[in-house]
């Protein structure tokens, strides 16, 4: 008995980027997918596929597969880093936020317009995260916050993960940073808008929450 083909083969699209994909994200509107590439470019794919494949109801029940009448639109490529893209996130204001090994934090609109928000020469911006309150990024052992009141926080080890809470609207609790090495002292307090809470996780990881 032959297995049915996977849905990606029936309803999906594929592209060849010719560079490693290091990050993937949808924009906040869900209309564009962004791919951060190892050659310093961002590739954008439009979700709408006119003439694309689909499903339609079948008489007597079930659905019928409709083959694509037109190929998927090609990826749009934009150069944003003088090196490698290291991180990608959807920006609440639209478009994408990208960090790279050139020390730049770049905002890219879906129309290709870009703006350098941070240029930290000699640093790697390897993690980025956003929330309705602002943007955050990491450089080595430090987490930086770009919002109404910019701030930064030193960690005891390099951050390995950075994420925002969707409902967060202030620096008090929007960002979680995880460090692979060492521990933050329980008495540590961040001079930001609220205390830092530290928690030892299984193994050698420590999380800091503001």
Unreliable parts:
169-176, 181-210
Task: Calculate the terminal CA-CA distance, rounded to whole Å.
Answer: 55 Å
Order of helices and strands: HEEEEEEEEEEEEEEEEEE
Biggest β-sheet: strands ordered side by side in the sheet = 1-2-3-6
The percentage helix is: under 10%
User: Strand fraction band?
Assistant: 35-45%
Count the helices. How many? 1
Instruction: State the domain count.
Output: 2
Main beta-sheet strand count, sense and barrel state:
4 strands, antiparallel
Q: What is the overall pLDDT average?
A: 79
Q: What integer value in Å does the Rg equal?
A: 21 Å
Number of strands: 18
Which secondary-structure class do the elements indicate? mainly beta
The backbone outline, from C-alpha atoms, is elongated
Explained architecture:
By secondary structure, the protein is mainly beta. It folds into 2 domains: 1-48 and 55-122, no CATH class; 124-210. 2% of the residues lie in helices and 44% in strands. It is built from 1 helix and 18 strands. The strands form 5 sheets. A 4-stranded antiparallel β-sheet has the order 1-2-3-6, with no helix packed on it. A 4-stranded antiparallel β-sheet has the order 7-8-9-10, with no helix packed on it. A 4-stranded antiparallel β-sheet has the order 11-12-13-14, with no helix packed on it. β4 (54-57) and β5 form a beta hairpin. 30% of the residues are buried.
């Amino acid at each position: 008995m032959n297995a049915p083909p996977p849905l990606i083969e029936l309803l999906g699209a594929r592209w060849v980027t010719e560079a490693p994909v290091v990050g993937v994200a949808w924009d906040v509107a869900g209309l564009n997918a962004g791919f951060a590439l190892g050659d310093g470019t961002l590739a954008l794919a439009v979700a709408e596929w006119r003439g694309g494949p689909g499903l339609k109801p079948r008489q007597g029940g079930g659905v019928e597969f409709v083959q694509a009448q037109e190929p998927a639109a090609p990826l749009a490529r934009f150069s944003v880093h003088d090196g490698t893209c290291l991180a990608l996130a959807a920006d609440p204001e639209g478009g994408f936020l990208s960090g790279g090994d050139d020390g730049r934090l770049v905002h890219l609109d879906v129309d290709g317009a870009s703006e350098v928000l941070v240029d930290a020469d000699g640093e790697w911006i390897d993690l980025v995260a956003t929330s309705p309150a602002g943007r955050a990024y990491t450089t080595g052992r430090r987490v930086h916050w770009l919002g109404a009141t910019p701030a930064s926080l030193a960690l005891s080890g390099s951050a390995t993960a950075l994420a925002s809470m969707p409902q967060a609207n202030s620096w008090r609790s929007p960002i979680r940073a995880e460090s692979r090495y060492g521990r933050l002292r329980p008495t540590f307090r961040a001079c930001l808008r609220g205390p830092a809470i530290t928690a030892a996780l299984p193994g050698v990881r420590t999380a800091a929450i503001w």
